[in-house]
Amino acid sequence: MPATTLTEPAASLEHALQRPFLSPQEREAINRGRWFAALTPSLRHDIFRLGRVTRYAHGQMIVEQGEPAQDWFACASGAIRFRRTTPAGKQVTLAYVEPGIWVGEAEVLHGGPNTYDGHAHGPTTVLSLAEGVFRQLLRGHPEFGEALLTLQARRMRYLYWMMEDMATLPLRARLAKQLLHVLRRFGERAAMPGQRGAIGLSLVQDELAQLLGGSRQRINVELKWMEREGIIGIHQRSIVVYQQDQLEALAQQEVSDARAETQGGSQGGLAP
Q1: Residues 58, 122: one domain?
Q2: Which of 221, 215, 226 is nearest to 180 (CA)?
Q3: Whole-number Å distance between alpha carbons of 180 and 221
């Protein structure tokens, strides 16, 4: 059955020539996303056609906690830092989102307020679809609903992995994995395995501690140890990975040790 043709509101058509567009690099960044690349060509076309492009300066708010959720959106360039303010007033960094990642579908579908703040981390471009357009896509592309379920399933799986890491891995392993995660998503594209690569995010120790569930003091101890070992370098608000292969080996070794301890504990310390 041919896909339904979706139309833009008349007001949007009047200003179509005036609104900003994605650059070829930004469009390619979204197309490279594994989830987005699996969508049908007609659905991808409609998302690009009906989306709204907004460019933000560093630190500018994209979504505000407590305000009505109005958009489903993707990072096209730069990065988005998601942060939540607790009832006690403490601000906690939840995640950084790189180009090609879509967020906000749960809030739009649920109809409730945003549960987090989203700020631009560096100059950032966002492609967003208003709630009405989002629901129009759901009606016009039946496969879109199933794709969103797949996206949510992946996020739930990732959440389970994070919970497992928090429960079973020592802080050094979690820190090594986090640095590798950030390097692969935000670091220099020229960095090859085993070689030097700068992490393209300005991360402070407080944020690393919040992401990893550790204290700032313990994060500082582990970072200093990695620096003494020549694995990383700390330069003001940036981190340079000098030995990516050693960082990967450290993460794997710590994972193996943790699993061995867990298995040994479950067997009362007896050999299998």
Answers
A1: yes
A2: 226
A3: 18
